[in-house]
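User: Can you help me understand a structure? I only have the sequence.
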Amino acid sequence: MPYKDPDPTDPNMLVGVMLAADAEATRDMAYVFAEEFARLGYSREQLLWLFKNPFYGGAHGAYRALGENETLSIIDECLNVWGQVKFSILDFGFSIAGQKDEIHDPHPSLIQNPKAAPRTKIQNGGREE
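Assistant: Let's start by predicting it. Here is the structure, written out as tokens:
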């Protein structure tokens, strides 16, 4: 078999199939796209742009099938649920209670020679040196 020619007997060959879906499945798919990107912090305008952009085939297909008004109602509903949720993860190497935890220095050379570089406030457990 020549190089890069598809082999019909290859079990690892990628094969795509079309599945029949009704309007309810399309609506559910639009909810999934809107919810996922709303949870990532997208605004209403960004979400609508995503649905209108042909690059996002699934979302764009749902937009074309449902129309702009239905898509906007789905976006608004998802933003009402997930749009106000903001996550902030901070890990400074010390506990919230202010107790100094063991600080893991990513540079082993600084552990062998602690005076090799000045330590930051974060490395000092939130305290000035």
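Now, to help you interpret it: The longest helix spans residues 23-39. The chain is about 45% helix and 0% strand. Let me know which part you'd like to focus on.
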